Amino acid sequence: MFLEKQTIRYCNKLRLKIPYSNKKKTNNDTMNDDMKSATYEDKWNMTESIRTLDQIALEKVIEVVKEKSPESIEILDTDKIKIKLDVISRETFNHIQTIIDESTLESLR
């Protein structure tokens, strides 16, 4: 505990980013974090859903990811793009899920 307080004081004095603490987070600490990260099952379901999307919906997904989380896109070939779901924010993940849901509803009509 003493060493942790000293580290925090030192970082504040030098205006450095405070290192990660092993201490459990309080409610105030979690307010700055994204919402609960997506589970493996959520990511798997999204991946399978994206594979079945039509061209228009795929373009929307790519636009959203390029705009909100460009670091998660990897261009493999001229016609292949890899989206790293582990890197995107929860907000972007939810937005993509909305696009998938809308496209699925339209295709069922």
Automatic annotation (TrEMBL):
<protein>
    <recommendedName>
        <fullName>NET domain-containing protein</fullName>
    </recommendedName>
</protein>
<dbReference type="Pfam" id="PF17035">
    <property type="entry name" value="BET"/>
</dbReference>
<dbReference type="InterPro" id="IPR027353">
    <property type="entry name" value="NET_dom"/>
</dbReference>
<feature type="domain" description="NET">
    <location>
        <begin position="39"/>
        <end position="101"/>
    </location>
</feature>
<dbReference type="InterPro" id="IPR038336">
    <property type="entry name" value="NET_sf"/>
</dbReference>
